[in-house]
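Can't attach files on this board, so I'm pasting raw text. These are the components:
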Amino acid sequence: MATFPLPKATTPAELLGAAGFVAGLRLGELASLLGIPVPPDLRRAKGFVGSLLERALGASASSRAVPDFPELGVELKTLPVDASGHCLESTFVCTAEARDLEIVEWERSRLWTKLRCVLWVPVEGTRAVPVEQRRVGAPFLWQPDQTEQALLRADWELLVSLLARGKFDSLSGHLGRHLQLRPKAAKGSSRRAALDEDGARVLVNPKGFYLRARFTEALLRRHLLGS
DNA sequence: TATTGATCATAT
DNA sequence: ATATGATCAATA
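---
Top answer:
Structure tokens for the assembled complex are below.
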């Protein structure tokens, strides 16, 4: 049995190997190895699973706007799945701010920067299963191929275009085939300054980019098929 | 019951 | 305030 946190990986492959070492463990076992208490449910600890895996794999703990493993250029994402291994939730990627609209280039966007290389770690997320009993699944590295990148880019350009033009009334979670824009804030009443379609100052609720569950479901299936 | 909109904790 | 980590829960 190795000690935790695991040694710092020097390559994405090593990181994948480290994540593979954790696969199969129950969250309670992993938390115990790290000396971290497990919450009874995730209602008041929504980021528990993600933070637990970050600590186990030695991610540089911070809230900076950079990948979890800066030296490797790898982003770590946990993926809640049901007993059959199907995705239960969408995946938050990053916030969409007015000032980011200056960056209209896909290649330099925060979204693409985060999704270039992702280490996905499936974790049982069925609410009826106690958090400590949930198991960590087999991890896999994902670098979007040309097709996937084109699909995401198309959605991103549609959504950013509406944001940039201040079409806030037209925005909703219904837009985007694989990527969507949804509220991302502490409270539904949270507001931030923006410019509407007439250039007038308005207050709007903060939003973030999310990958739809059916998109991550497809990644998971492709991985399981071994391609 | 799948999905959209709302929300929670913590660090900086 | 806004970034990180997401899941909860009301609605369609």
